[in-house]
Every structure is written in C-alpha cells, then in structure tokens.
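[User] Could I get a sequence and structure tokens?

[Assistant]
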Amino acid sequence: MSIPLGIKGHLPNTANFLFEVDGEAIGLFGEISGLEVYADTTSYAEGGENGFVHKLPGRLTWPNIVLRRGVTNSDALFSWVNKTAGPGFESNTDKLTRSTAAITLVGTDGTRLRSWDIQGAFAVRWSGPRLTVEAGGEGASEELELAHHGFTSKTFS
C-alpha cells in the first residue's frame, strides 16, 4: 500500500513519515520524536532480603509525540488542529475531539514499511515558521505536538 496520490504533490521531497487522522492523510513529516513508553516503578524493600530491592511495575507513561516538517501549501494539518482544539483554541474539554491517528514510515518508493497507531490523539501545540529577513536563516518549518493514550506498532508485508 503506497501513500495517497493527492498528498505527494504538496510536500517536501525529504519527508518520509505519513501522518493520518481517522484514516485521512494529513501530511508527510521529516522528523518524529516521542514514540516511546516507560513504566513507573515502586521500590519494595523486603525484610531479610539485603541483596536487592524489589521493583514493582506501575502505570505506563506515554510522552507527547512531536512531528516536524517543512511548511507546505496544504491546510489539512491546521484544519485538524482547529477541529481537535475547538473554536478559538479554547481549553474547554467539552469541545475536545480525540482521534485515532497513525504515523507510517514510508520507503523512498512510497511503500508503507511500519506504522504506529495512536489512540486518543489530540493536538496540544502547533508551532509555525520563524519569520526572519536575516540571510542564512533556517527553512520555514512547522511543528505539531500530540497528547495521546498510547500506541501500537505493526509492519506491512
């Protein structure tokens, strides 16, 4: 399965991660961070056991995921951010829309290689390009940060 044709013409050549929300392609990204999980632990010192302290597993913690890319001429990303956050980026949770999202590693030929399905995703931060007239400035880029309830991973055959 390759990336949707409509998405290819609007994105930078260096992108290789497809971001989809509820099955709809939002865009390609060149950098993803925060795909990690860790378990909290509780230490328990057992009486009479001096060789070690027991470590007991606790809750899983899923950090926010950050996606970065060059600015494109597509409004799909910002439209989803508006939909997720509600009118005027209000923090009223009654208007919060959680989504099922997916980040897919895409090969140079457009083939899907591995995907991470993200549960209960919503945007917590969007950052646009830093605008400057200074020579040698970085290229225009945007950044999206997602909060979520965890993810699963799968490979494509």
Notes: The chain has one domain: 5-35+62-155.
